[in-house]
Amino acid sequence: MIEIPHLGTWLIAVSSGPDSMALLHMCLEEKIPCAVAHVNYHVRAQAEEEERYIQSFCEEKHIPCHILNKPFEYEGNFEANARNYRYDFFRKLIQENHYCGVLVGHHQDDLIETYLMQKEKHLVVKTYGLAKENHWKEILVYRPLLDYSKKTLVEYCKKNHIQYYEDHTNEDSQYVRNRIRKEVINYSKEKRDSILEEIKVANQELFTIRQEAHLHIREGKVRIDDYRNQKEEVRYTILRFLIEKKNQANYSLKHIQSIDEIILHQCDFVIDVHNQYLVQEKGRMFVVDSLEPYTIVFSSKEDMMPHKHPWFSIEEGKPGVYAVTFLEEDFPITIRNAREKDAILMRFGTKSVHRFFIDRHIPLYLRRVWPVVVNSKGTIILVPGLGCDIHHYSINPDCNVIK
Fold it and tell me: What are the C-alpha distances in Å from 329 to residues 125, 297, 376, 377, 392?
């Protein structure tokens, strides 16, 4: 008997192993409306045979079957890339077909293996072991089999004459998870129960810490002085909340400690964390998605107005330090991010843009993306917040470039 969060049609991730085949059969027995998703990575000799079997099984049971059978290309870690690959496929299917979410066949052995691997690698995690449910890029992922051991699921398949395939790559002991997997499958019931209780207690403690950490986050930002006054485990959890916003990565304790060390001892910082950036401004830290250089070219005044960009906007001209008046020969105009040796000729002399940043206490992250306006000759004619150069000032400016 399996429990599903709510009624509706569910997508089931089926690899052809005993766990996912047992899950599929249980759903059919319980008359849970479902569809099947299978990913063929083409990395095992029997992959084509497994795909054909799943298709024939679904045809026999009149179940919708979705197969991803494309060359799988990746760089780096296979498991991490394969996980992203299949879950992005599940997400697409769920959105297109309005499924409730995806059911996956993770079982009790997977739960214990994951916990032991987290401990061995000293990971700072969102959940110890595996959560019954979580979300992947806004789709619901549910694990109904966490109370079943791998041995129980194999016996279920044999009893119900369900064909399944074993993944022989799981025998390769060079991988940490495979080594732990071989140990876990032979654990006694007493040892399993002891570890499961340990996981339960660890998650209860983690829940309390997460509740405390939540209190220090307001609209995605944390006061740095407040952060520095917290105990270590709360600080690490606050960091997880901030940087896990758009990725599903687990962070090693060493990695989290290195980030924590910077925050504790530096007044200003830009910390790269998995293609996003932890930054500070006005004593608060938060995450920004990108600090990439940019260059935008405008052929005329009409082409410029109005314009919105993540790091600046172009608006109606009003006198002030954001205003500029163009000459005909200035076009095409380029707006780009500031560079290290940029300077502008002001009425009081040449001013270094870098010096302007220092004088105005501009945060490090904003220095990377601060806009400057450059004319066709390559001369900087406006630094928003500092002003325009001596040749482009008037009491009726053409536009304002607002940071």
Answer: 58, 14, 7, 9, 12
**Structural domains present in the chain:** 10-187 (3.40.50.620), 215-288 (1.20.59.20), 295-402 (no CATH)
State the pLDDT at residue 368. Answer: 97
Output the pTM of the full model. Answer: 0.78
Per-residue confidence band for 74, with pLDDT thresholds at 50, 70 and 90: confident
∠ Cα 174 180 181 (to 5°): 100
Q: Mean pLDDT throughout 106-131?
A: 92
Distance CA 164, CA 15 (A): 9
Give phi and psi for 148, each to the nearest 5: -105, 135
CA distances, 57 to each of 16, 44, 66, 164, 363 (Å): 10, 20, 13, 11, 59
For the record, the structure tokens of 75 come out as 């760089």
Tokens describing residue 141: 């992922």
Integer CA distances (angstroms), 154 to 146, 163, 166, 216, 228, in order: 14, 10, 10, 47, 50
